[in-house]
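Why should sequence recovery work at all? Because a backbone constrains its sequence more than one might expect. Tight turns favour small or flexible residues, buried strands favour hydrophobic ones, and helices have their own preferences. The token representation captures these environments compactly. In the example below, the structure is given first.
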């Protein structure tokens, strides 16, 4: 009898009821499109005569850091196709400035009717841009200013 009681106690210990619970958690991911600019040296200094003949090339003059979780497109436009001041006898067009991503080979003249853009897939990207200025001998002696606008959008 004692053996039977011991066996019954041992059996009931092994047959205890178990209960499992579960719960779910949700992760909400929203569209991320972010760009920041760095290394923005802003001056093309035409102090040497050869600069007027050959232009000035500024490698990595602007660096854009893009963070996106969707395919993205970064577009450059200018505030005006004519650089300021616009009251000179021969206004300087923004197209005397060319831009290209440092990884490509061709400069695109800056102007609003044909905006410059680069695009890529989601991720973190650092995109350096090279700029070239080539006004030649056609413009008055003074300082010309133009504003560049970078806009990021999804593709």
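From this structural description, the recovered sequence reads:
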């Amino acid at each position: 009898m004692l053996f039977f009681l011991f066996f019954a106690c041992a059996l009931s210990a092994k047959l205890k009821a178990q209960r499992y619970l579960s719960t779910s958690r949700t992760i909400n991911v929203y569209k991320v499109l972010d760009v920041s600019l760095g290394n923005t040296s802003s001056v093309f200094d035409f102090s040497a005569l050869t600069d007027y003949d050959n232009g000035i090339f500024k490698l990595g003059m602007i660096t854009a850091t893009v963070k996106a979780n969707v395919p993205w497109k970064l577009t450059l436009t200018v505030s005006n196709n004519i650089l300021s001041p616009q009251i000179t006898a021969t206004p300087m067009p923004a197209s005397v400035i060319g831009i290209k991503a440092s990884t490509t080979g061709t400069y695109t003249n800056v102007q609003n009717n044909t905006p410059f853009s680069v695009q890529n897939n989601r991720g973190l990207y650092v995109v350096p841009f090279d700029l070239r200025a080539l006004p030649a001998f056609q413009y008055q002696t003074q300082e010309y200013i133009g504003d560049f606008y970078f806009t990021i959008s999804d593709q």
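A few observations help interpret the result. DSSP finds two helices and eight strands in the chain.
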